[in-house]
Each structure stands twice: as structure tokens, then as C-alpha cells.
User: What shape does this take?
Amino acid sequence: QVRLVESGGGLVQVGGSLRLSCAVSGRTFSSRGMAWFRQAPGKEREFVASITSSGGSANFAASVLGRFTISRDDVKNTVYLQMNSLKPEDTAVYFCAAASNFFSFGPENMRSYEYWGQGTQVTVSS
Assistant: This one.
């Protein structure tokens, strides 16, 4: 069984930064593509960023491109989301997700992901 635990959320002012972490249990982390999604109140869950199992390729939603980066540490079994220049519209619950070794339906499609964390709240105040 794979378990994902997010941390690092909180309240931040506009223009500030946060780094989210997702700790993954199990021995298969290094073979899994990973991603972050988010869900704002009253809205559908949306793709934010993904990273391949090798860490050699990443994808970003247009709304966060240039402000967010994603990285992984296969020794610590952790994936990170560095969020800079935060905006009020970034306010959401952020979820970590683990795919199989490749993104079956593409990195932006939730169906590609087998396991999900419980989410961490990010609130950006203006």
C-alpha cells in the first residue's frame, strides 16, 4: 500500500512563498510519476504540476508556469512544490498524487493517478 502525506500549507500574503512537501511511503516511489493538484471551494480539482519518475521532465498548468516548481528526492521519498509569487487565486486545498511508472492518461488527467493524499490548505491573503 502507498500512503501520501502532504505538509507545508498555511496562510501567506500575496507575493509570498510556500513549499509543500509530500512524503510517500512504500518502496515504489522512485518508479512513480508524481503530481500536485488543487481544489478551490466550489470548483473542480485541477492539475498544477507533475514530474516524471526520473525527475527529468515536468509539466505545469499555465496559471502557475514561471511561479511554481516541482522537484523530487528519491532518497527521502518526497516530492515538493515550491510556490512563489503567490496570488489570491492560488488559494485551494493542494493534493499530492502518485501515478504508476508512467502517466496512462497524460500527466494532467486525474485518471493517471492511483494514490492521493489528504490535502493541505493554502490560503493567500490580499
